[in-house]
Amino acid sequence: MRFTKMHGTGNDFVVLDGRRAAADWSALAVPMNDRHFGVGGDGLIVALPSDRADLRMRMFNPDGSEAEMCGNGIRCLAKYAVEQGLVASSRESLLVETLAGDLTCELRRERGAVTVVRVSMGAPQLDPRAIPVLAEQAPPVIGLPVRAGGREFAVTCVSMGNPHAVWFTDEVVAEFPLREFGPLVERHPAFPRRVNFEIVNIERPGVARARVWERGAGLTLACGTGACAVHVAARLNGLTGDATDVALPGGTLRIEWNGAGDLYLSGPAAAVFEGEWPG
């Protein structure tokens, strides 16, 4: 089974063409994503046929759970699709079916290679039932107190097709023990489908620095939907304007959302190497 190892701002994936293959993708994701005995990655991305879009994307975390969406992953899939011949190489955009809806990816090239993809991520969901979060308040859910590990975090909750809890802090995010608190927030009873946890410093309006504990994956160098949630939460809290550059350990993503309608995510996508998985 041929695969391509790819990354978007350090958020790395094993990407493969599953249009003519049959496999238990959830089970396969566990050994393939193992960083010691497998290829290694933050997720397995499978390109599949779609009745209503150019392709359907399925994304599986290293623990085998399926994610509704992945902002860095969909950019990698878009680059993979045009450069591996799944769609015409001349395409300037493509439509991808995901569990979070059908999303348009705009392709930007340098010297013929796709280097940046701008994704229309749809509208963020702010209703607590849609996120989902157990909060007895009208949307948006801002300042929800979440107690974990002897601390309390006042989080803003957003869904980008998958659930996020965003915490703004004056503590330096690079020094915060996210490995300790991330799993506790992820599995807090307020989040019936678990949650991605973002910790954020606002450096100035339009510039944020963040780290992410990803549901089902743990610490990652970047998270596309997490960066989207950071911008949405920052705008809801009056901390930024219509666009934010979100600096993550693996690089910077640009997010645009003016408070209504669709949100746009722009960032790089890169191929690292190709290989053959036995079986």
What is the helix tally?
4
The ordered H/E elements are: EEHEEEHEEEEEEHEEEHEEEE
**Strand portion:** 35-45%
Mean pLDDT over the full residue set:
97
Q: Roughly how many Å is the radius of gyration? A: 18 Å
Q: How far is the N terminus from the C terminus?
A: 7 Å
Largest sheet: 18 strands, mixed
In terms of structural class, how would the helical and strand content be classed? alpha+beta
Residue stretches low in confidence (pLDDT < 50, at least 5 long) are none
The amount of helix comes to 10-25%
What is the domain total for the residues?
A: 2
Per the CATH scheme, the topology name of the largest domain is Diaminopimelate Epimerase, Chain A, domain 1
Write the CATH homologous superfamily of the largest domain: Diaminopimelate Epimerase, Chain A, domain 1
How many beta strands in the DSSP annotation?
18
Verbal overview:
This protein has an 18-stranded mixed β-sheet that branches. Helix content is 16%, strand content 43%. The mean pLDDT is 97. The chain folds into 2 domains: 2-122 and 267-276, Roll (Diaminopimelate Epimerase, Chain A, domain 1), CATH 3.10.310; 141-261, Diaminopimelate Epimerase, Chain A, domain 1 (Roll). The chain has helices at 25-33, 71-83, 178-186, 224-236; strands at residues 2-8, 11-17, 44-48, 55-60, 66-67, 93-98, 101-110, 113-122, 141-148, 151-159, 163-168, 196-204, 207-214, 218-220, 243-248, 251-256, 263-268, 270-276. The longest helix has 13 residues, at 71-83. The chain is of the alpha+beta class. A hairpin with a 2-residue loop joins β1 (2-8) and β2.
